[in-house]
Write a structure and sequence with these properties.
alpha+beta, four-stranded mixed β-sheet, 24% helix, 13 strands, six-stranded mixed β-sheet, Nucleotidyltransferase, domain 5
């Protein structure tokens, strides 16, 4: 099962709030005509929070996006304060929902095969590669049964407390989890021996490779330069001994880094594939230039 939080027996005190000024939602703001605000308890909320951006969506049981908002962290707030700001600005986030998923973009994470984990080993694994403070960090685990893997990650206890205060019952995930689910789904749909998924964000990208035996690699790269994207991608293919002419490569996400990298990737890889054909179409959403493949981090599977 994915990492979960449970409602504590004692009432959680309100976190100490920073001074918050109302601010407008960022470049993306979509609301479907079929959104019924009287039925919010029947919708699922997914909220993704990074240092630079927050994105959130409401889904119905058919996995249609009914509400989609994205905003930049224009005041360079800490992640905790940014979460405060986002919830403060949109009263919809204070409502009760059928389910709530919070997606973390912490860089302190790693993947471990399920069979290698034992009780109490989570922190030990993370400490082999990252600085972990048991006094200030919460260690989370998110298991992907179809891959036989668990994503371990660390978030600040303060962020965890804030999420509990605002959302009470929720699931918390690392951003790699929805990306891995979508990568596996698209790889199977392609029916190819191997495939490579480049998932773009504002200040970097994930590179996820699948082969005949399953996941070959899932790594995160920090960069804002298209040339680095091409360099790292070629290195991955070389290290995995994958032929760039025979390995389908597709890209998801949005933003300046993706826009700058797309032409370069398309020119270099003869096997470049349009990812959009593997994601659901939603005419109203698509009519305003928004597509499911731009928001993979929000496409979590409901329980």
């Amino acid at each position: 099962m994915a990492a979960k939080t449970t409602k504590p027996e004692k009432k959680i005190p309100a976190p100490e709030m920073p001074e918050i000024l109302p601010s407008a939602v960022g470049a993306v703001a979509y609301s479907s005509s079929s959104l019924d605000k009287g039925q919010l308890a029947n919708y699922r909320l997914t909220l993704s929070v990074s240092e630079s951006k927050a994105e959130y969506a409401l889904f119905n049981d058919q996995r249609e996006i009914l509400l989609l908002n994205a905003r930049e962290n224009e005041r360079n707030l800490s992640r905790n304060e940014f979460l405060d700001q986002v919830v403060f600005d949109d009263p919809t986030l204070k409502q009760n929902f059928k389910g709530i998923d919070v997606v973390s973009h912490t860089t302190r994470w790693l993947i471990v095969p399920i069979e290698h984990l034992s009780d109490g080993s989570d922190a030990w694994y993370l400490e082999t590669q990252h600085d972990i403070d048991s006094n200030t960090d919460s260690i989370m685990r998110d298991t992907i049964g179809s891959l036989g893997l668990t994503v371990l990650f660390a978030i600040s206890q303060e962020f965890h407390k804030r999420a509990e205060f605002y959302f009470k019952k929720f699931r918390i995930h690392h951003v790699a989890v929805p990306l891995l689910h979508e990568s596996q789904r698209v790889h199977i749909a392609m029916g190819k021996t191997a495939s490579l998924h480049i998932a773009f964000f504002e200040d970097g990208f994930f590179c996820i490779a699948f082969g005949e035996q399953g996941l070959l690699l899932c790594n995160e790269f920090s960069t804002t330069h298209a040339e680095d994207v091409l360099y790292y991608t070629l290195n991955v293919l070389q290290n995995l001994k994958l032929n760039p002419d025979l390995t389908p490569l597709y890209a998801t996400g949005r933003g300046e880094l993706r826009n700058k990298s797309m032409q370069m990737l398309q020119n270099y890889f003869a096997s470049f594939v349009d990812a959009r054909s593997f994601f659901p179409l939603q005419p109203l959403l698509n009519s305003v230039g928004l597509w499911h493949d731009q928001f993979c981090q929000l496409l979590l599977k409901p329980i």
